[in-house]
Amino acid sequence: MRFYQGIRSLILCFFRKILFLWVRTDVSGNTLEDLGLDPEKPVCYVLQYSSLSSRLVLEQEVIRAKLSGPAPELPVKNSSTHSFFFLYQRVGGLFRGGRQKPVPTKEFSELVKFGVKHPEKDVQIVPVSLFWGRSPDKEKSLVKLLLSDTWSVAGRLQKMLLILVHGRNTYVQFNQPLSLNKVVDEYRNNEEKARRKLGRILRTHFRRVRQAVLGPDLSHRRTLVEGLLRTPAVKEAIRETAAKEDIAPEKVRARAYKYADEIAASMSIVTIRFMERVLAWLWNRIYNGIAINNIQVAKEVAQDSSVVYVPCHRSHIDYLLLSYVLYKNGLMPPHIAAGINLNMPIVGPILRRGGAFFMRRSFKDNPLYATVFNEYMHVMFTRGYSVEYFVEGGRSRTGRMLPPRPGMLSMTVRSFLRDNRKPIVFVPVYIGYEKVMEGRSYLGELRGKKKQKESVFGLAKTVRKLSNSFGRVSLNFGEPIPLANVLDDVRGTWREEAYDPEYRPDWLPDAVSELSQRVAGNINAAVAVNPIGITATVLLGTERMAMDEGQLVRLMDQFASMLKAFPYADTVTLPEGDAKDWLTYCEGMGLINRLPQKLGDIISLEGSNAILMTYYRNNIQHLFALPALIVSLFENKACLRREKIVFLASVAYPYLQSELFLRYTQDEIETIIHQWIDVLIQQGLLVALEEDKLSRPEEGTESMLRARILSRFVIQTLERYHIALGILRKYGSGKLTAAELEEQSTLLAERMSILFGLNAPEFFDKTLFRSFIANMQKNEVLIADEDGRLCYGEGLDEVAEDARLVLSVEKRQAIQQITMMDA
């Protein structure tokens, strides 16, 4: 018997080596850390369909990963490297082919029997999904029917062709183990029911993994475009446009077809594979690595839902990077909403085949185009495609999260209201760069330089940068947001209402607003703190953007420890190493200057780097917003009661929350402020006194220096608020419109930026003033009269007086002089 098994093992080993002369695999989840296996329990791997080639691939990957060996005590197949079984056995003769029927294998039944009879011996069952090629089916494609891995494996000839065509793009995914005891425990007296339960769990698992990896079937693009024109909504829009413009319906239909053809993606797995190779080369050339965190979230929701990936938008690299990471981790790349400006010669067709669909910047005045685009999005969601779009609309030039635009979110909500059979889940993604490729052009735009239009020539200029090093990139996947949960919170009865394609319920804006805040908040809650960001944050908080190296290192370590003492969110990641490592890294990136001194080297920021580093500081500014706000209240006051601190911070919080998209709700903010006060006392940044009073540290101490630097993390934001309040009080209630206040505030902020040498371009950003004014109106601090002029009561004066606590004497006097306010 042993001789026979030895010969059999040699033959299988020979076949495996022959197979892997051709086959190349991409494997996911096969590490001991990913699987979390208990070394005290036997492990058994399960493949869905009986197949010699699949067995050989599994064996090879188990050997490579050095996973658990065979468990002879189990009644399953045991190779020399592992124990495994097939869920379904092959039906039919050697050359009969035919679709496999879901007939459980003998080993499957025996394993269930073993589990029922031996409750003291648990077995870890690891499902392994294997895909020969990762191409979703296309409707009416004979080639796909012959050569796609549909999991309904046919004859051996088809399998041979499948391996020849797709063998070099084989994907293997190991998944979390199941406990056999937990599955069969409730059916110890009924083996048949236990067998059916385990079979059902495994079938469901394999189906869900297939949905995530391959996605739904892809329609032929021409079929999809023509189908859009047959939808009732588009037909009605064609009729209305023809009547309004008094032209033939055929001409309007041709225009609608042109719109649909302009919009629709034409995803090609061949293009995706090609782009994977190109991008792998590109990332290795320009980046020091890609850190991926919490991607399991995306893998889980993609198995049952239509996924909307909503990343922050920092660079044109974003959508390429996200698609690449998803594909490399066993997920189908999403269909990506791209601006029509990217539909350039050469580049546009490649992006379209990579999954991009193109949209115009605005289509309010074109109802026909709007209807076609809405219907295209509806098709994407109802068929279960994953979609990606940037809620910010454009790239952030300041490094901060931009206010979400409602357009795409509104389309998504309206589509879901029409048909909610397929759940829609938003997956926020934070993409963090240590050195953004467009950094220098952002500086020019912030200084007033006209934004350059995308072109092939502009792309060619970018290619010249590929020899540069842009550090490390981080992709952090945040907490998912099921759309149904948001609608439940906003409108509990939404499922009972009827919706047609053009219906916009009066509560829709509230739902979109709530959704946008959660999306932006969850993106920021998944921030990746990197060495560049934390170095920039501390150095920019110093008086002259320069500091002794030893002191700087201590401060950076202390601020990092603050983030660990009270973590902002579980999805935030911190850099490895310590401040000394981070400083060395920044110096290697050419972002800081070192001035050698006998008493200790001085580290500083100079020239354009000083402004560029504000971008990276702004990436993580929200993490320090609350502690910085609390400490800033002591800028002109040595001692405050705890209740006064909580009150003032709570008053300012809604505005900080809106601007920085902080995750805490208004209901919990007082508790969070109390917790931060305790942390600041522990860290030596505040001193607890009698009668519930708190004071700042003593002047001249390092604790006081730390407190002062921390307050500067948020002080410019508070100064910007005070500018707007000062201008309002100068003109008086009912004198200025929101637009006039925004313009006046921007001009004054720009002037102060010059007078005080502020290297923060966002300090005089119109968008931030606009948001602050809108929030004052939302909180009813300001009320617009019939003419749109802003009116306020005595409460505004009280808030303005309290706000003066955080302003330095020089800046307070500058604002008073310019606005001609009384001291």
Describe it for me?
With 823 residues, this protein is an alpha/beta fold. It folds into 3 domains: 12-214, no CATH class; 221-524, Glycerol-3-phosphate (1)-acyltransferase, CATH 3.40.1130; 715-819, Arc Repressor Mutant, subunit A. It contains 33 helices and 23 strands. Strands 8, 9, 10, 11, 12, 13, 14 and 15 form an 8-stranded mixed beta sheet that branches. Strands 1, 2, 3, 4, 5, 6 and 7 form a 7-stranded mixed beta sheet that branches. It has a 3-stranded antiparallel beta sheet with strand order 16-18-17. α22 crosses α23 (549-565). The longest helix is centred in the C-terminal third of the chain and has 30 residues, at 702-731. Residues 93-98, 139-147 and 150-154 have low confidence and may be disordered. Belongs to the GPAT/DAPAT family. It comes from Marinobacter litoralis.
Quick overview of this protein structure:
With 823 residues, the chain is of the alpha/beta class. 51% of the residues lie in helices and 11% in strands. β3 (77-78) and β4 form a beta hairpin.
Please give a handful of descriptors for the protein shown.
3 domains, about 50% helix, alpha/beta, 33 helices, lipid biosynthesis, 8-stranded mixed beta sheet, GPAT/DHAPAT_C, 7-stranded mixed beta sheet, about 800 residues, globular, phospholipid metabolism, Glycerol-3-phosphate (1)-acyltransferase, 23 strands, transferase, EC 2.3.1.15, Arc Repressor Mutant, subunit A
